[in-house]
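Please produce the structure of this protein holding fe (ii) ion.
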Amino acid sequence: MRVLVTSDLHYNVAGSREPTRRLASEVCRADADALIIAGDTCGHDLAVMDEALALFESFRGARMLVAGNHCLWVQAGQSSRHRYESEIADAARRRGFHYLDREPVILNNVAFVGNIGWYDYAFASESLSIPRRFYERKVAPGAALMLPEHHDLLRDRHDIRPDLLEIRTRWTDGLHVKLGCTDPDFTRQLADKLAGHLRDVRDRVDHIVVAMHHLPFVELVVRRNRPDWDFANGFMGSPVFGDILLAEPKVRYCICGHTHVPVQVQLGGIRCMTVGSTYYDKRYELLEVRSHGCHDQQ
Ligand SMILES: [Fe+2]
Ligand SMILES: [Fe+2]
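Below is the modeled complex.
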């Protein structure tokens, strides 16, 4: 079985539109049995997701997607939870895509399982020593210094090294994602769902392919020893997903989006990778899932 996986089409971004259209036309001509889009298809405007998914209408195989954090960006007064659970499901259905966040798909003896994943700050760089309250608010200390609404984080500075005040990164999910619960709580809910979906399929197939947007393994996290970049690593994913995947021997592949940097690593029996599309260059991976084993090729 030949499976194409792409991610981070960001079709709401002007520079992403032409490369996404080029990728879609290549994908639609490809000889493949399934296509997965691993998140970050759109931003606030969900109509853009409809537009992007329509580009893959002539793809002949099964079409699947998971949500990305940008797909949960909503306007003031709207709910990211509603976006995640209902609106994206409706958009996927309208365009003939299976929404893996809602339920797995089985094709022959291969199951496709996945969801958006999320972050609980576990991948934060320990050497930075940024106190947890900054991750919870999604602003680095230097950004908090510039933004009056976050000055309360700096009232007591005994645990803030002076150099941390130079880090001005903010993770913009903090402005646009309205979950109604904490990030660790959402992470736990998604991990439970992933475990449940794996239980649902494991006795019915020989192979499982997992697609997530956020990263389940620290080995996929890109470290640059640049404080502005490394602060953002707190929002890359969570190892709770990885622990669940490593406990399931039928998982052959885990493919993710989110980082915009392609990384591949073998962990136990799982070939793990990030697609690595950027805002201006769209990529896909071709996975070969065979009854006697799997290998991938680009
Ligand atoms: Fe992205
Ligand atoms: Fe993302």
